[in-house]
Design a protein that fits this description.
Length: about 140
């Protein structure tokens, strides 16, 4: 009943017993899943790229084979026959030049096909990380 004054102070410290940084954990889980989906998306893109390039490589290989086994040997044989016939007076110079042009065009096409084939194979190797010559 006295007129004494008292000062009361309190300190509050939050103790997290139940929320163990659940928000950050969920965010990390979402980021992990997002990374997995991005990786899968990139992998699918690369697979689609290889699947579109591979038939081109097969077609170029077939063209190289056809040129080396058929077209160029026949063009060389035709040029030899026509050139020999020209020297005997059986053909005109225009025939020789035409046969020579055909042979040169076949050889040029072979070189272009080989170049395109090598570039295509290099692209596949770059995407897959595999050396196709060793397979």
């Amino acid at each position: 009943e006295s007129d004494d004054n008292a000062f009361v102070a309190g300190v509050s410290i939050p103790i997290q017993l139940f929320d163990r940084n659940q928000g950050a954990i969920k965010e990390a889980e979402v980021r992990v899943k997002q990374g997995e989906w991005e990786r899968k998306g990139r992998l699918n893109t690369l697979k689609a790229r290889v699947e579109s390039i591979y038939p081109v490589a097969e077609a170029l290989a077939a063209e190289i084979s056809a040129l080396t086994e058929n077209s160029i040997p026949y063009a060389e044989e035709a040029f030899t026959i026509i050139n020999s016939g020209y020297q005997q007076g059986k053909f005109q110079l225009i025939d020789v030049l035409d046969a020579q042009r055909t042979l040169f065009e076949a050889r040029q096409r072979l070189l272009e096909s080989i170049k395109d084939y090598k570039l295509t194979i290099n692209e596949i190797e770059r995407i897959t990380g595999q050396n196709l010559n060793k397979l």
